[in-house]
Amino acid sequence: MSSQQEAAGAGGLSGVPAASFTAKEDGAAVEEGYSGDVEVGRGGAGAVRRYFVRTFGCQMNEHDSERLAGLFESQGMVAAGAVEEADVVVLNTCCIRENADNRLYGNLGQLRTLKQRHPGLQIAVGGCLAQKDREKVLERAPWVDAVFGTHNLGHAAALLEQARARGPVVEVLEAAEDEADEFPSALPVKRELPFSAWVTVQVGCDNRCAFCIVPSVRGKEISRPFGEIVGEVAELAARGTVEVTLLGQNVNSYGRDLTVRARSRPDWKACRYETGEQWVEAASPRARPLFADLLRAVSGIEGIDRVRFTSPHPKDLRPETIEAMATERAVCPHLHLPLQSGSDRVLSLMRRGYTAERYLEKLLAARAAVPELAVTTDIIVGFPGETEEDFGRTLEVAAEAEYDSAYTFIFSPRPGTEAATWEGRFVPAQVCAERFERLRSVVERSALRRHEARVGLVEEVLIEGPAKKGGPGVFSGRTRQNKLVHLEHERLKAGTLVEARVEQAAPHFLKGKFLSVLAPPRHRELIPVMVS
Ligand code: SF4
Predict the structure, then answer these.
(1) Position 348 pLDDT exceeds 70
(2) pTM above 0.85, yes or no
(3) Which long-range contacts (CB under 8 A, 24 or more apart) does 349-357 make?
(4) Which of 14, 255, 256, 493 is within CB 3.0–4.6 Å of 289 for a Cys-Cys bond?
(5) Considering 151, 179, 207, which residue would you say is the last residue of a domain?
(6) How many folded domains does the chain comprise?
């Protein structure tokens, strides 16, 4: 991978790339207390059970939580409005943020109090930290009912049932037992936003970045069958979804393993959906779909107006991908390309597989091909052994790259990673803090410049809903470049495509004037699929 997910590997955050600079605190809300004595919806025997899923970490985890929600609803459960109302609470964990375990066990401590008040409450822990800690979770928090890992998300409901009958259960697998578990795409999904959807195209990662725990907890890189992805997007389009974000840890190396895996089966020609028709017929055993082919196939689906992807790795950014971005109208002009460091020495220590020069060449090529391209990045400050000279290179490269925004992180060691063992080379906290500020001013300058260049332009904005700030009558949405825009209007439904003139620019967002509705929302509400 590489992106916010990847940056999360270094410093952690969640969320779709936005015009923000500082690291998002994905755990901020998590520390809220579970106090209160709300009994709403907590029924007796026969009452409908309510679930509450709390997500830590990256988009991959957020999408996994959508699948958990869909799974529970397919079992007849309903979403609880608040954790205090739930009969089942799932913590979908991430181990790539600093202090992830403190955060998890802090949350579990609060849930213990809740469980003492409501003995019927079931607590489950899933995701990356569960994959890493396994039985340790139950040792430290014996009031937990079920622990599941990253490879058996689809077993969550069954494990909770098992725990109801026989007591706490831990099931963490080294790898998925079958392909359906690798990509729990057969699970029903309760999507957060009906007009915009994440679509997993790949899981795991074959790289070994020195700061990242992802390969240990998500396993080796596995591409999802080509036909299955295209099928899911077509189905989403038929339901009125207009935007899809293709998700992978290292998304632009998609397809590397597909043909090899398919050809290992005796009946592989029958599995055309695995690699896509044209590669099944290709004479060369090396023929396989590229990420660019996937981009083109998904962009060609009627009804899909916006295709995004995250997170690409600079070393795997091929000319074919850039060309697909330039020629496919649906592919949005936004590239999140993690730099991590501008120093070749540090990049080598990180095991990133590219130099700053090569990175900038690729960026230049992408900008030349896609003139409206917005570029965002992730940068780690204070990687072990980073000297003032190394950091100076990062400032130079950041200035040259002219980012639209950057997620920046101060290095903090993740247990289980190579870099965590380099204590002797850790950069003092004060030095890191000072470098962080210097980098921030460089990135904010370019972000503001690039945003100011949008003032006066008419942008297509996909409305996401009422603005979090600004009061009633203010709505927020995203431009094709993924820039956050606030605009005033009496009432706009989420999923409406509007035209707005940009009137004001700030480093992290734009303000626009509503001009017209381009298209009303096309989505229908999703009804979870019942499974037997
Ligand atoms: S190891 Fe893989 S997932 Fe982790 S930062 Fe490197 S490319 Fe991204």
Answers:
(1) yes
(2) no
(3) 349/210, 349/383, 349/384, 349/385, 350/209, 350/210, 350/211, 350/380, 350/383, 350/419, 351/207, 351/208, 351/209, 351/210, 352/209, 352/314, 352/315, 353/207, 353/313, 353/315, 354/314, 354/315, 356/393, 356/397
(4) 255
(5) 179
(6) 3
